[in-house]
Design goal:
By secondary structure, the protein is α+β, with helices and mostly antiparallel strands. The chain folds into 3 domains: about 5-85, no CATH class; about 100-200, no CATH class; about 205-330, no CATH class. The chain contains 6 helices and 18 strands. The protein has helices at about 70-85, 150-160, 170-180, 195-200, 240-245, 295-300; strands at about 5-10, 15, 35, 45-50, 55-60, 100-105, 110-115, 130-135, 140, 190, 205-215, 225-235, 255-260, 265-270, 275-280, 290, 305-315, 315-325. The strands form 4 sheets. Strands 11, 12, 13, 14, 15, 16, 17 and 18 form an 8-stranded mixed sheet that branches. The longest helix is centred in the N-terminal third of the chain and has 14 residues, at about 70-85. The radius of gyration is 25 Å and the shape is globular. The N and C termini lie far apart (about 65 Å).
Length: about 325
């Protein structure tokens, strides 16, 4: 990606001061000494581009910033992230073939997993989790406990697959399910095969069902804040989930079931500069009509038991729609 090699140096020092508070630092050690280490982020690594005759300082990375470790793979992943943020490489750990697995959370929202082939492409190539994105678009990496570097680590797994000793990573679905572990089943995933990287980095559209517990307005903000109690909204199409909950689908007289084992609010912000749409049910309870934000806030006060759906992209609330009306508020 660069004209030369990359050199990485540890930066370590220790300063003992009679009064450490005279220095402009946030953290210092128990013996009042000051070091380079940030307790929450770990020790810094200095990154230099080495052109043979000269070294060009590029920046600093902290191994603890993303939950990494001081193994070769931990350093390698942090360096990859550093170079990507500098625009010096594509946002992928492994080039070539990619699939995307999108996992729907039970209370709304989606996680996206980027699957790559780290050793060789095609039907005989193993798959791995390149990285994953949460429902708000935050990016995370899979940190592997190994003393090897990434290339050697996956080449050894590929060799086992070629020899028929371990074929578990030849199926991308198995890799995705293993990553999510016990929180998912096949029907929870939507797979997109042979995608461009741009498809993975498109933020997921999150849809949450629940009850609006309270709206808040603070003096320091023009925005409205909503406390939202998320629920799992199930219909007759969710046969396996209804079976897991031991709910007889034949007893769903209204055609739906609301699973709300806990009542804990999540906060959403309706920002003034965003064009959020608001829809409520009309008097018939069958059709929707659009209203303004101010009228919607007033409407909530008299319809506390209505079920709503919030549509969100990233941290932006795009739409709030009343799903099931509160008959007591009409």
């Amino acid at each position: 990606y660069l004209n030369g090699d990359i050199d990485i140096y540890k930066w370590e020092y220790k300063i003992k001061a009679e009064d450490p508070e005279m220095f402009n630092v946030i953290e210092y050690q128990e013996d009042n000494s000051i070091t380079e280490e940030k307790m929450s982020l770990g020790k810094p690594l200095l990154i230099f581009e080495n052109n043979g005759n000269t070294h060009k300082f590029m920046g600093i990375i902290y191994l603890g910033e993303r939950g990494g470790n001081e193994t070769k793979i931990g350093v390698e992943i942090e360096l990859i992230d550093f170079l990507e943020n500098k625009g010096l490489k594509e946002k992928e750990t492994f080039t070539g073939n990619h699939h995307v697995a999108e996992y729907k959370l039970r209370e709304g929202g989606s996680y996206k997993i980027l699957l790559s082939q780290p050793a060789k492409e095609g039907e005989e190539g193993i798959w791995c989790v390149d990285r994953w994105m949460d429902n708000h678009g935050m990016m995370y990496y899979e940190y592997i406990e190994s003393e090897l570097d990434l290339k050697t680590y996956y080449n050894k797994i590929q060799e086992k697959a070629d020899a028929g000793k371990d074929k578990s990573r030849l199926d991308y679905k198995d890799v995705a399910l293993d990553f999510i572990k016990n929180n998912a089943k096949d029907y929870d995933f939507d797979y997109s095969l042979n995608v461009a990287l741009e498809d993975f980095y498109t933020l997921p559209v999150n849809q949450y069902y629940g009850y609006i517990m309270e709206t808040k307005k603070y003096e320091w903000s023009e925005n409205n804040f909503i406390d939202f109690d998320k629920v799992e909204f199930l219909t007759l199409e969710d046969k396996e989930r209804l079976h897991d909950l031991k709910i007889d689908k034949n007893r769903l007289s209204d055609g739906y079931y609301i699973n709300n084992p806990t009542s804990y609010p999540d906060s959403f912000i309706i920002e003034k500069d965003k064009d959020t749409k608001f829809y409520i049910l009309d008097d018939s309870g069958k059709n929707h009509k659009e209203i303004g934000e101010k009228d919607f806030i007033e409407y909530i006060k008299n319809n506390k038991n209505s079920l709503y759906k919030i549509v969100e992209i990233g941290f932006d609330v795009i739409k709030i729609r009343e799903v099931i009306g509160d008959e007591t508020g009409r």
